[in-house]
Amino acid sequence: MPPPGACRNIMAARHKQNGHGTPTNPEKFLNQDFVSLKKFCLINGLRYLDDLFPPDSNSIGQGILKPADLARVEWLRPAVSQIAPNADFVVDGFSRFDFGQGILGNCWFLASIGALTFQKHIFQQVVPLDQTLKEDYCGIFHFRFWRFGRWVDVVIDDKLPTINRSLIFVHSKDPNEFWPALLEKAYAKVCGSYTDMNSGTPSEAMMDFTGGVHMCIQLSDSSADAWGLMCRAGKSNTLMGCGTAQGETPANTILPNGLVQGHAYTVTGVIELLSQGKRVRLVRLWNPWVKIDPVNENSPDFNRMTFEDLCKFYTDVDICGLKPDFIDGKSSDQWKTCVYEGRWVAGTTAGGCINNKDSFWTNPQYRIKVVAENLQTDDEKNILVSLMQKPDKRNRRLVQNLHIGFSIYSYKAHSGKFPASFFGTQLPVARSEKYMNAREVIEFLTLKPGEYLIVPSTFKPNETASFILTIHSKAKTSC
Known about the structure:
Radius of gyration: 24 Å
Number of helices: 11
Structural class: alpha+beta
Number of strands: 24
Strand content: 25-35%
């Protein structure tokens, strides 16, 4: 652990692209090795049973089902039970038309899967398609997710919770197709239980599917160039989702205009066209609740609306991509990405926000230098900063996010750590809009050429937590 206020070289902390915990070489979640476990089962003629996410009530969790219904749950394997007559992993390809939501309140996760199906390369990275319920079947499957800086390979058995031999959570339109239900089970294992998937935002799962660049656009912000970003994202390898406001009535209330309050949707397309001599900007959305008919474009799945209506009825749009190329529509080679994992420790490196004048300087400090390259205007946004806190608990529902944020200071000719006196006389040139008790805080900023100090912190002092600081920079950055 570095001393209080120690300055670190953020460039040196960049992850190695071919190292452990990457998409091509993921870490083994809970130390379970899919290849070894499957080989053991095949040699011994066994069907895999996952003792770390067993088929019992603990894996379902408390609060989803009434005790009487929980007692009726039967965990069945698709390939050797009466769930389906001819079960398989994938039937006739994959698309958002494959699945529907069960009794679990995880529309945010399903909206993210809907977006995932539009990007074949990313989909195959998360869902290995060399899996089947037929040849060499032994009841074991695996999926890959990005989890707080590392890709992990998650192993599950294929026992699924049913009542009266019907799936109670995600189910497929084709009763023989089971990749959606198995993918949901793998994510439930990562979260701790099915219950732990209740409530969330699409950006969380989309980041866990990509591990890349995330931007959240507030549709009320007229200066955010939301339409331009969405159009560029639509032409890139990105996932897009949006959400309606919570409102005063209970979440998931269907409003008179047909939209669901406090609900997650998938953005499936954006287009600008001429109509009666005028340019019209259209957005197409998908609702995970809808029982879709892929042949009928008048079905509720094809919710087309103008961009102006999107801004009126929705609060924000989340975009997640493998690379930053959607930010300005140019080659991603112009963008550099730096990542550093750090930690606030009570009593040493957890100084709280700037209001805590005597301790703020003890927070972790990172220096970057912005060089004037590829900047066309003085106010062009060239730095995307993400501060994400890492959970200290396995179960997602037990994680209590701290209020986090960051400040950026300009400096000249300074070596070593920055003392309290520096922050007593200097004002930040940029900062996160506010401290939020969210998994991630993001700001898209303009930093002119010069040297800068980035200070991530919790709002209150002496709060211990781990974090990931990521900087995507259009201009060249260095120490």
